[in-house]
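Lab channel / #folding
Pinned by the channel admin:
"Please post every new chain as: sequence first, then the structure tokens as a reply. Keep commentary short and put observations after the output so the thread stays searchable."

First post following the new format, from NK:
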Amino acid sequence: MGDRRAVLILVLVLVLLLLHVPNVYSEESTVEDKFSDFLSSVVGLDLTKYTSLQPTPPPNSEYPEEFGGLVEQIVLSPNFEYNGTNFGTMGIFYNGHMSSLKLYYYGQEDYVYSEPQPPDILSRAKGIIQRYQTFASQNYDKDTSYLVPMLNILNGVDDVSPTEFTEGNVTFRISKDGDKTRIEWIYTEGDFLVDWKRVDIKFRYNAFESFHDMWGLYSIGGLSAISSEDFVQIAQEAAQNYELRIGHENGTIETVKVPDLSNASYSVSLTMVPYRFIDDYNPSQIERDPLTLYPYWAVLFYFNETIAGVEGMQVGVWGDTGEILYCSGFGYLIPEFPSWITLPLFLTATLIGILVRKRVMRTRILQ
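Reply from TO:
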């Protein structure tokens, strides 16, 4: 009898212990929960009015090679309907953090919100940043103080006329493209803008269209250790010693020396990039972190006359070590971009734009 009583007491104790053990998994939000929470609490949509269209595509999870297998990327793309009007979405999470949200809505009508929205874009943007601070502090285990100066800058702006200025380590920019208005906060060191470390919001008409936060994904590996003059000298020497291989219709390949570049015109750009996007040329001789941004110089040398469609030489150099990433001719013969221009979704156009501003799009030819 005593043994039976002891067993019952033990069972009762175990039950009580289990009742007081916190259910960690139930408290952790899934990306689906965070996605819905972002739409409702940050964008302000009244999701109780919308119906999720079926079938809803399941989350697509992978560990992209460009992040060195260190970052889980999850993509969600549910569609919603209200009163016969549909809109699509695409949300991208990196290690559980919302880095990108895009709404696809092609009408001029606004969404259904849980509360009345301000009529102007500036007030809406302020509300989004304020609500995002709360959302991030509740859902992410990270410091959200970087959002404070962004909101302070926004509070000092009177309208959404195109502008650009820098305060501290943040460059603030407002730009317009037709019916779209884009508001950006870009990390800045000195006079150098680091496009891969940014927060931005885009509106179409007055309605929210997209949000991106890449501020915390990458760290900065330091600015360039070589000057633009030293870089041009390194690049010019590499380009001058290069031999072009020109293919002919009969299948033969002709080797041609690069003409004298000592007086050639050229254009130079400096940017910060993750090394994983460009190491398919010449891998760096030093160990690099896939989640760190490194200085990268690029130059285009222009020939006085084209050589079988080749218009000049292009050279890329690591700004911290002076190592040459690539050296090749460029022209219009092959309509494709170098493979390092495959960037994470919304940033593709950013880096392409850096090159296009310097010259009409160029491509590599036969190596």
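NK: The chain has two domains: 26-214, 228-364.
TO: also worth noting, Residues 238 and 327 are 7 Å apart (CA to CA).
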